[in-house]
């Protein structure tokens, strides 16, 4: 089904403030959340994320992310790569981005780690011209589609740009807290050779890991509760995610609320967005999570909710004993059991 381009061009030209795609399982996409998470595991880490948001509304938004990162222990650093692709609407608007990430860590008193991270990206933004219908093509007396003379057709093209992000993270065995800033160079994403700069996105996140049980004789049945939050602001839009994971190995449960209750009457701001339920399992090297967003905004059940899947895989490597002991002393921040 084709879209009328009048509404679409408003979004392309930037008359509507643009926001980044977001994952409900934000800690299942750590490099996307904050580049300071790069290399915070002791092994090679591979993560795949898939999100299908509002599938009943003009094909909604489909976001895919693939990432890899590795801990350079001897250099107190981490390196990683992140590839994201976002598709929106019936006109096939696609944004693809490739990022290289680097982080550096400092250990304080063998209890706290302070990490800083940088992300350098290059992105492409395109649209499927064959799916567009311009105003002068709406010939009600003819079933055949006639060519368009709209000048906007000749201005449409692919947009490409550099993107720069940065973040910091502080954590120990129990707590973690971080912040990140995305689009620091405010790239122009317009497809019409106009000015459509991305607003800077600021993110603050944190959490606490609370062991509920620890029985060395039953290592496969550890219980951990991990409340956490993420607050994001981009342009005139802000969003708060707050909730908790419960791990009873190998099962993982999560319940989240996305929204800012005190802003429920603010116009054009989806402050009451969704209730998120997360289910999954964790094995020594693999973790699989599924979540569903129950839409509680005015959009309601007509949206079709949101489906999200995250798959993590850790490729274990051999390290010198001295390095292994140091990393076990200060594990990376996570709701899962540190192995």
Explain the layout of strands and helices:
Layout: E1 3-4, H1 5-13, H2 30-33, E2 44-53, E3 61-72, E4 77-88, E5 93-108, E6 112-126, E7 132-133, H3 152-155, E8 159-171, E9 175-182, E10 201-208, E11 210-213, E12 223-234, E13 237-248, E14 251-259, E15 272-282, E16 286-295, E17 306-315, H4 321-329
Parallel strand pairs: 1-7
Antiparallel strand pairs: 2-3, 2-17, 3-4, 4-5, 5-6, 6-8, 8-9, 9-10, 10-12, 11-12, 12-13, 13-14, 14-15, 15-16, 16-17
Protein traits:
disordered C terminus, disordered N terminus, two-stranded parallel sheet, mainly beta, 339 residues, 17 strands
Written account of the structure:
The protein has 339 residues and is mainly beta. Helices cover 8% and strands 49% of the residues. It has helices at residues 5-13, 30-33, 152-155, 321-329, and strands at residues 3-4, 44-53, 61-72, 77-88, 93-108, 112-126, 132-133, 159-171, 175-182, 201-208, 210-213, 223-234, 237-248, 251-259, 272-282, 286-295, 306-315. The strands form two sheets. It has a 14-stranded antiparallel β-barrel with strand order 2-3-4-5-6-8-9-10-12-13-14-15-16-17. The radius of gyration is 22 Å and the shape is globular.
Number of strands: 17
- Can you give the mean pLDDT? 80
| Model regions low in confidence, pLDDT < 50 over at least 5 residues | 1-17, 322-331, 335-339
Ends distance: 50 Å
Large-scale geometry: globular
As a whole number of angstroms, the C-alpha radius of gyration is 22 Å
**What is the H-and-E element order?**
EHHEEEEEEHEEEEEEEEEEH
The helical percent reads: under 10%
Strand content bin:
over 45%
Q: Give the class from helix and strand content and strand pairing.
A: mainly beta
